[in-house]
Design goal:
Blueprint: E1 17-21, H1 54-66, E2 71-75, H2 85-93, E3 104-109, H3 114-124, E4 128-132, H4 138-145, H5 151-163, E5 168-174, H6 183-190, E6 196-201, H7 219-229, E7 232-235, E8 244-248, E9 254-258, E10 271-274, E11 279-281, E12 290-291, H8 293-298, H9 300-312, H10 318-321, H11 324-328, H12 336-339
Parallel strand pairs: 1-2, 1-10, 2-3, 3-4, 4-5, 5-6, 6-9
Antiparallel strand pairs: 7-8, 8-9, 10-11, 11-12
Helix pairs in contact: 1-9, 2-3, 3-5
Length: 341
């Protein structure tokens, strides 16, 4: 149905990873993602009838997998807020690559609902879990997430995921003056547990987080500071993975750093994103997306043409081009909460 010739974009990058947002809603209001002054009580979220149905999501995923996509990641907003998410995972887990191999199905979550759902998600066929966690200090966590939900609820969710056997990663967005004093503590908390922490440079995603370059902590500083306490050695990067990996010399685990600002990795990007209302975005920093819903209604071939046809014309490399011109005259960019980071 879908030939390999449809996969490469204008720079020869193949579509291998598809991130699917299940909802634009979230129960946190993290200041760098969904600041409350923008996403407050009067913010209008997508109505239920605008969300992709699970049948539509399954069709898009099935076509993507037939065309070479190897990894599916469920995102949001907060994907665990979408009713029926366990059933969707079960449906996606039944998909197979053309050679019969299973699909890697991941979930990015704030973990506030993970204690209840970890076991059912594991049974449904979810492969792994990534948890967004920016602080281990209850007061700092409350300030960054702008919520009354306790930090303990996130930590309990992580423990539940580990207890049922999920590989777990932690995503920590590092922002100077907010949580950069906790780098060593966060690394120490998960060292030796089998949980890898990925420290992410604070990025200029969307237009509502008030991003400034001065707020960004370079990944090199992160590695240097953690390595000062526990020596690190570099590990070879896996394929199109966004994180540069570093192992503790004493064998107690690893950390990763995602350096979109200081060391852009556009040249190896194999990711596309589908928003909760069915728009395809070929870059995290895109201004707009292509509506896939008409194609979904027309069948698998139409979806393949829309998905891979769009990818074939892709020339995105915002992070490589980021500089004075993009900072002084920024163009509109989709919000991270809308397409799942």
């Amino acid at each position: 149905m879908v030939g390999a010739e449809r996969i490469g974009d204008r720079y020869g990058r193949e579509l291998r990873d598809l991130r699917i947002s299940l909802t634009d809603r979230c129960n946190l209001r993290c200041v760098y993602c969904m600041p409350r002054e923008v996403f407050g009580t009067d913010h209008v979220f997508l109505p239920k009838d605008r969300l992709l149905t699970f049948d539509q999501i399954e069709r898009i995923a099935r076509v993507a997998v037939a065309g070479g996509v190897r990894k599916l990641r469920l995102t949001g907003g907060e994907p665990l807020l979408r009713p029926g998410v366990v059933g969707l995972v079960e449906r996606l887990a039944a998909l197979r690559q053309p050679d019969g191999a299973p699909i890697d199905i991941a979930l990015t979550t704030n973990a506030t609902g993970l204690s209840r759902l970890a076991a059912p998600l594991k049974d449904a066929g979810l492969s792994r879990v990534t948890v967004s966690l920016d602080s281990l200090d209850p007061e700092t966590f409350a300030r960054i997430s702008d919520t009354k939900l306790p930090l303990s609820r996130v930590l309990d969710g992580i423990d539940a995921a580990r207890a049922v056997g999920f590989p777990v990663k932690i995503n920590t967005v590092v922002r100077r003056g907010f949580n950069d004093e906790e780098l060593e503590a966060i690394a120490e908390r998960f060292r030796g547990t089998g949980v890898a922490v990925r420290f992410i440079e604070y990025m200029d995603v969307g237009a509502t987080n008030g991003w400034r370059l001065d707020d960004m902590v370079p990944s090199a500083e992160v590695v240097e500071r953690i390595g000062r306490r526990h020596p690190l050695k570099p590990v070879g990067q896996r394929g199109s993975a966004t994180a540069s990996r570093w192992e503790y010399v004493d064998g107690s685990g690893e950390i990763g750093v995602i350096s979109s600002v200081t060391e852009p990795f556009c040249g190896s990007c194999t990711r596309a994103r589908v928003s909760a209302d069915g728009r395809l975005f070929t870059c995290l920093f895109a201004s707009d997306g292509i509506d896939l819903r008409p194609a979904v209604d027309d069948g698998d071939e139409a979806v393949a043409d829309a998905l891979f046809g769009t990818w074939r014309t892709r020339d995105d490399r915002y992070s490589e081009l980021r500089g004075a011109q993009t900072m002084e005259r920024p163009r509109p960019r989709v919000e991270m909460s809308f397409i799942g980071g």
